[in-house]
Design a protein that fits this description.
The structure holds 2 protein chains of 2 kinds.
Chain A (H helix, E strand, L loop, with lengths): L2 H22 L5 H27 L4 E8 L2 E7 L1 H24 L6 H20 L3 H19 L5 H32 L17 H16 L10 H4 L5 H10 L1 H17 L1 H7 L2 H20 L4 H22 L2 H32 L10 H4 L1 H15 L5 H15 L4 H26 L19 H19 L7 H12 L3
Helix pairs in contact in A: 1-2, 1-4, 2-3, 3-4, 3-9, 3-14, 3-19, 4-5, 5-6, 5-10, 6-7, 7-10, 9-10, 9-14, 10-11, 10-13, 12-13, 12-18, 13-14, 13-17, 14-16, 14-17, 14-19, 14-20, 16-18, 16-19, 17-18, 17-19
Chain B lengths: L3 H4 L3 H18 L4 H26 L2 E4 L10 E4 L1 H24 L4 H23 L3 H20 L4 H32 L4 H7 L4 H18 L8 H7 L2 H26 L5 H23 L3 H17 L1 H4 L4 H33 L10 H4 L1 H14 L6 H15 L3 H25 L14 H16 L4 H4 L9
Antiparallel strand pairs in B: 1-2
The chains are: A mainly alpha, B mainly alpha.
């Protein structure tokens, strides 16, 4: 047994063990809880840096134990999984800092942070899953660990939102299970490999198309593909850090990541394209993009507007995957990272407005920029990124997506991107206008005083950091070490040389 | 490895004799019943786990009681299946004993009746799992039934007494049907030894009639739809530890017996397996829908047992081409269900003790008052619903795989649909437990021991999800 086997396990343990200890801590053990939270988050990042160095030098990290007859439980760190794990780990750190500030003095913090850690553990496990069965295990675990976070407030509305959430996500889990067992009964393997394991087995293409549809619907629930998206805006009753985590890191991204895995490592992109299943998927993604943006236009509740924006933005990933060309692949995968940083910034800022001023609606945001300039600057940067204004990270994603569409002759993709950008501008720019240029009201709905600061440090620093990162990923996109650079490495492995 | 005197020791009879002594002693010394019972529980569990170890390392064993051979004396037989069942009973039995010790402090008059009966029941279980002939199986089955009925009646309330009465009638009727089968078999083949019967029986009407009678009797005792009507009142109205041992262990005994007969005689034809599978399907849907409709937690859990027992019977129609996967999956589900359901009833008992009621709609933030108990309930529910990672998932996956390999889509859909229904009723409870209710309720303190035993059992159900590659090989050679 050497370190290469145990590193993936340690990455899981670095959030699982602190989470378990936190459950047992009394409510008042603030210092210990904070230490465990931050210590675990930092340790995870250190372990990941070690693995990234290894993977770029060609080392494989794999942990494998027998699980059910004929199948193993596999944790495997390849370039793609490391990208997602890294995103989760970095944003988890930011969200933990934020949540510590956000939940100060509120009850049940041990429970909250305990499930928070388990939720990240599930996400990381899902990212490192080496076969479809392991993926399924963590996919369900993610559903189960986020449920207590969604209903954390304990109100009647929370219970109903939790129920909707479960009906959708467990339904998705059932579909994923069906597809997985169906595929296994035909292929006898579920191991993820570059360019897929389904091709070349001589299976009936119609059956494969059906399996593809079932699997994609299974992960599509979490990826909020229309018409499976309705749970996402409802889950907004959860506290702001949970929304941030759900939208940027864990749940929605897990769905999008599942689409990536199924298309590239189960079916293989070229084989999937030859089956003719990628074009319908791309169309579905395009419909979701336009639909989500359109619905976002009409939401006055800030978090609901952001939620519909997520529905739209996450489908860029699916779109990039489904266009089936190397450049579009880069656009889709890099958006997995970029959208994470931008969307988490937006939710942090929305949380700051709610916590500091009691502002929940767009119509109440007049003059918020004067009262909270730093928060609104971060918000503005992220919103420009979402619209796709250069030099923000979102521009890079859209640029590659558009080029990728043109490369394979799918010119309509550019139209979809342009239309979506217009819609993005239409629902973000009014927010910015009213926040920066309208006069503030006499009195905010529910203001808290933080002295000379606009709000608490723990609430302010995370959005500023993530907004700056989103700016940096765009400004320095072609430098080594950026998400774009890493994605080039991945894309090269997913297409036949 | 083990020292010789431990590896070779006669653990098999000890697993039966020890609880019998426990029953006798706790009956003779009622004031010391609880400590005696608890001590004996640990000893019995040790003996049973030692049998598991012996079988795992040395293969199936046969023990001749008093040194007499099979036709004259009584033979105890332990193979992989028996050993797994013994071990399951050992772990759950210890947990229930620890729980009951604390739980019954509030009801001193129940203590001196509970322990002798429970020890007696445990002895009957261990004897049943090791019995090598159909007549001894009858005797142990009867003892088991009688002590179980007495335990239900222990609660003393009106519903418990009427539940116990119904249970008694069903139990006697089931045993009678079984006994009829035994008599006919003895008449036809001149032996009651299972192994010998397996060699001599050639099928035909001579075998079909007694086997039919025995299977019918066992279905009645297992509570398979439509013979389940006695189960929810009996399991739902008993005291918490009693409900746990009834749902987790007692119904498994008659299922075990059914499997034994099936493996011995392997009835020909497709009709009976499909009938059993269909009844199992009906049980899954009827039990789950009833569970969804219940307003009381314990009744919900009891109806869930009806549904989960249905799953075990899906293996019969699937065993044709994939016997190892189907039977292995079914047995694994039975083991996981025992852990999960034990944990669930114990958790329900703690919730009832704490709030004085078990109305699901009024659970009112139980998660804040009893986080451990709720965690136990949730983990057990995850295993029941077959969500990963848990023993329930492994069992269900194996059954699903058996179905898909043969292209039997109908059964696969039943398994998947049943899982979704299970998740629905489990999360209905969790939803209320996580939120406030408009009404105020009294609140009593619950000893930590009760919370922890339920949680540890539930963790056992989750842990079973990871040990399948080591547990399943024990069944090699047992399955047909």
């Amino acid at each position: 047994m050497n370190a290469n086997v145990w590193l993936p396990v340690m990455v899981l343990a670095s959030s699982f063990i602190p989470g378990m200890i936190i459950f047992m801590l009394p409510e008042r053990a603030v210092v210990l809880r904070t230490t465990l939270n931050l210590g675990g988050a930092v340790l995870k990042i250190i372990l990941l840096v070690l693995m990234m160095i290894g993977v770029s030098h060609g080392v494989t990290y794999e942990f494998r134990v027998p699980f059910v007859p004929g199948l193993d439980f596999v944790l495997h760190a390849d370039a793609l999984s490391l990208m997602f794990v890294n995103l989760s780990a970095v944003l988890w750190l930011a969200t933990t800092v934020y949540a510590i500030g956000y939940l100060e003095d509120s009850p049940n913090r041990s429970r909250f942070f305990g499930y928070f850690s388990l939720c990240v553990t599930a996400t990381v496990g899902l990212a490192m899953a080496g076969n479809l069965l392991t993926f399924l295990v963590f996919y369900e675990a993610l559903t189960l660990t986020t449920y207590p976070l969604v209903v954390h407030r304990g109100t009647e509305a929370a219970r109903r939102a939790g129920r909707t959430y479960l009906i959708y996500t467990l339904g998705g889990g059932v579909l994923l299970l069906t597809g997985t067992i169906w595929l296994y009964s035909l292929t006898g393997t579920l191991e993820f490999v570059d360019r897929g394991f389904v091709a070349g087995l001589g299976l009936d293409p119609n059956v494969l198309r059906m399996i593809f549809a079932v699997l994609i619907m299974g992960v599509g629930v979490k990826a909020a593909l229309v018409p499976l998206h309705a749970w996402l805006p409802q889950a907004m009753v959860a506290p702001a850090p949970v929304s941030a985590l759900l939208h940027a890191v864990a749940v929605v991204k897990a769905g999008a990541f599942g689409v990536v895995r199924i298309v590239y490592d189960v079916f293989g992109i070229e084989f999937a394209a030859s089956l003719g299943v990628t074009l319908p998927l791309a169309v579905l993604a395009a419909v979701t993009i336009i639909y989500g943006s359109t619905r976002a236009l009409f939401q006055d509740d800030l978090k609901r507007r952001l939620a519909f924006s997520t529905v739209s933005q996450v489908s860029y990933i699916t779109l990039g995957v489904a266009i089936a060309g190397p450049i579009a692949t880069i656009g889709g995968l890099v958006h997995l990272v970029h959208q994470g940083f931008m969307k988490i910034t937006l939710f942090f800022c929305a949380g700051n407005l709610a916590e500091t001023l009691g502002v929940h609606k767009v119509s109440e945001m007049a003059g918020a920029g004067r009262r909270m300039p730093w928060t609104m600057t971060a918000f503005t940067l992220a919103a420009f990124g979402m619209i796709g204004v250069p030099p923000m990270a979102g521009f890079i994603s859209k640029w590659y997506l558009g080029l990728g569409g043109l490369e394979v002759g799918q010119d309509w993709v550019v139209l979809v991107l342009a239309g979506s950008s217009l819609l993005n501008a239409a629902y973000f720019l009014p927010i910015l206008r009213t926040a920066w240029f309208d006069p503030p009201p006499e009195e905010w709905p529910h203001e808290r005083d933080f002295g000379r600061k606009e709000t608490a440090w723990a609430l302010l620093l995370p959005p500023i950091a993530t907004a700056l990162a989103a700016l940096a990923w765009g400004l320095f996109a072609s430098m080594p070490g950026t998400p774009l650079d890493w994605v080039h490495l991945i894309a090269a492995r997913k297409y036949a040389p | 490895m083990l020292p010789e005197y431990l590896a070779g020791a006669a653990w098999m009879p000890w697993a039966i004799v020890l609880p019998l002594w426990g029953a006798l002693l706790s009956f003779l010394f009622p004031r010391r019943a609880a400590p005696i019972g608890l001590g004996v529980a640990f000893l019995t569990a040790t003996a049973a786990l030692a049998v598991l170890l012996q079988v795992a390392l040395g293969g199936p064993r046969r023990y001749q009681v008093g040194g007499w051979g099979a036709p004259l004396g009584i033979d105890l037989v332990a193979d992989g299946l028996s050993a797994l069942m013994l071990a399951m009973t050992a772990v759950i039995g210890v947990a229930i004993s620890i729980y009951a010790r604390v739980y019954l402090v509030a009801a001193p008059d129940k203590v001196r009746r509970f322990w002798p009966l429970w020890m007696f029941l445990w002895a009957a279980l261990n004897a049943l799992f090791q019995a090598g002939d159909v007549f001894n199986l009858y005797v142990t089955l009867e003892l088991l039934g009688l002590s179980a009925v007495a335990l239900v009646a222990l609660a003393g309330s009106g519903p418990a007494l009427s539940g116990a009465m119904r249970y008694l009638l069903v139990s006697l009727f089931g045993s009678l049907a079984y006994l009829l089968g035994v008599a006919l078999l003895y008449h036809a083949y001149g032996t009651v030894d299972l192994a010998l019967l397996g060699e001599r029986a050639q099928g035909g009407i001579q075998l079909a009639v007694p086997l039919g009678a025995m299977i019918a009797g066992l279905l009645l005792k297992t509570g398979l739809f439509p013979f389940h009507v006695w189960l929810p009142p009996a399991h739902g109205s008993a005291r918490a530890p009693v409900s746990a041992l009834l749902s987790a262990l007692v119904v498994k005994a008659s299922f075990y017996l059914l499997l034994r007969l099936w493996f011995t005689f392997t009835p020909a034809g497709q009709g009976l397996p499909i009938l059993l599978g269909a009844l199992g399907t009906a049980a899954i849907f009827w039990g789950s829908i009833q569970a969804l409709r219940q307003r009381r937690l314990k009744l919900l859990v009891a109806y869930s047992t009806v549904a989960q027992l249905g799953y075990l019977f899906i293996a019969f129609p699937l065993a044709g081409m994939e016997p190892a996967l189907a039977w292995g999956g079914s047995i694994y589900l039975a083991l996981s269900h025992a852990f999960a359901k034990g944990a669930m009833f114990l958790a329900a008992g703690s919730i009832m003790t704490e709030s004085g009621h078990d109305e699901i709609g009024e659970l009112d933030l139980v998660v804040e008052r009893m986080p451990l108990t709720l965690a136990a309930f949730a983990l057990a529910g995850i295993s029941l619903a077959g969500l990963p990672p848990s023993g329930g998932f492994v069992g269900k996956w194996m059954l699903l795989q058996a179905a898909m390999e043969q292209g039997l889509w109908g059964w696969a859909l039943v398994l998947i649909g049943g899982g979704a229904l299970t998740a629905a009723y489990v999360f209905r409870v969790l939803g209320f437990a996580f939120t406030t209710s408009p009404h105020r309720h009294e609140s009593h303190s619950v000893p930590g021991t009760m919370e922890w035993t339920a949680l540890l059992l539930a963790l056992g159900a989750v842990l079973l999800g990871f040990v399948a590659p080591w547990a399943l090989p024990l069944l090699d050679g047992v399955l047909p």
